[in-house]
Specification:
Chains A, B: Keywords: DNA-binding, Transcription, Transcription regulation. Chains A, B: InterPro entries: DNA-bd_HTH_TetR-type_CS (IPR023772), Homeodomain-like_sf (IPR009057), HTH-type_TetR-like_transc_reg (IPR050109), HTH_TetR (IPR001647), Tet_transcr_reg_TetR-rel_C_sf (IPR036271), TetR_C (IPR011075). Chains A, B: It comes from Paractinoplanes toevensis. Chains A, B: GO terms for molecular function: DNA-binding transcription factor activity; transcription cis-regulatory region binding. Two copies of one chain form a homodimer. Chain A folds into two domains: 50 residues, Arc Repressor Mutant, subunit A (Orthogonal Bundle); 113 residues, Orthogonal Bundle (Tetracycline Repressor, domain 2), CATH 1.10.357. Chain A contains nine helices and no strands. The longest helix of chain A is centred in the C-terminal third of the chain and has 23 residues. Chains A and B meet through helix 6, helix 7, helix 8 and helix 9 of A and helix 6, helix 7, helix 8 and helix 9 of B. Chain A binds a DNA duplex (30 and 30 nucleotides) through helix 3.
DNA sequence: CCCATTACGCTACTCAAGGTATCGATACTA
DNA sequence: TAGTATCGATACCTTGAGTAGCGTAATGGG
């Protein structure tokens, strides 16, 4: 007896992965502003209405795509410092991947003036990482939120201002800076 | 003998300040996304075409408004640490002012996918402060750019994720964190 | 086998907003 | 008075997000 009974009617085709891939390649090729839902649908070989049947808005689609692309944060390391350093470098590497940084910056920007999207972004993308980091680092919520603001804010600001991801030397400086705060509050 | 001869034709009316004020109040009241150029023009008592005669795009208008609202950075303090601390607190206070934070976050977001706007934002808003800080702190360009990414990125990320400006305790932590890097690179 | 149910593709559509074109009126200089 | 450039007003173009309706394809149940 399955826990969730299969709902009646035609089952959904497994196109989520295809749409996510099309979203990232479209953003990479054309930029966030030109990555319209029409174009993403065309790139995925899917009707636009199908996309809106699965995600309520373009921002929700991008957010879901980002959640899928980021995956779980690797919490590896011998101590808290190593864990946090690994998480920062992982975030920097992810944001530097083609399309992800631009998509992230774009959806973040849209969220500023859109409370609904802000809630989606906060609960679906930020909260899981915040909770995982709280437990792994044994730090209070306010401090973890501060770390996230610093790390993600810095990486996105660089991406937005220059159009390029942050170079390795500056990522090193970012890791070093945050670790000092962790070790000597 | 005036240095710049007055150009022929009807002179421009002195409405820049009026439009800037209308822009901030409109953003404050309605949010960045709902602060359309039509509404800003109406709030300023000015025709939309007049706005487009003076600023080439909405982003350029917002940027000019921000440049006007921020004004010059105060570089006061006995030593480099005090100067940088004062600059960070000044930035945090400005971004917390009604409308400014939302406008900043909005135009920043738009700039991510708009190279033209990115150039305007970089040259007209960031560069003056970067240059002034380079001289006041006697630090290389890359380091000052890193500081700007950290400070502005953190403040904007908080503003974008929560819709509220950063609280005083976190601004203190931000100042403390950056000062450590300044004093012990 | 037929039916209810749901998903898909397609076309067409609405709506909002950035940005443009045109034109008459106005303010200033020479 | 002629020339120039601005302002306001109206109308318009274009793009893109999101929706509605319809025929069709799958699936499970009777």
């Amino acid at each position: 007896m399955p826990v969730t009974a299969r709902p009646p009617g035609r089952p959904r085709a497994g196109i989520d992965a295809t749409v996510f891939a099309a979203t990232l390649t479209t953003v990479t090729d054309l930029g966030y502003a030109n990555a319209t839902v029409d174009r993403i649908a065309a790139a995925a070989g899917v009707a636009k209405t199908t996309i809106y049947r699965r995600w309520p808005s373009k921002g929700a689609l991008i957010t879901a795509c980002l959640v899928d692309a980021f995956g779980p944060v690797p919490l590896t390391g011998a101590d808290r410092a190593e864990i946090l350093a690994a998480a920062i470098r992982w975030a920097a590497a992810k944001i530097a991947e083609p399309g992800i940084g631009a998509a992230f910056a774009g959806v973040f920007t849209d969220a500023v003036s859109d409370p609904d999207l802000r809630r989606i972004l906060s609960t679906q993308l930020q909260d899981p990482y915040r909770i995982a980091l709280q437990e792994a680092l044994d730090e209070p919520e306010t401090r973890v939120l501060f770390f996230i603001d610093v790390v993600i804010g810095t990486l996105i600001h660089r991406m937005g201002m220059t159009g390029e991801p942050m170079v390795a030397a500056d990522v090193d400086a970012l890791v070093d800076m945050v670790l000092r705060v962790l070790e000597r509050p």
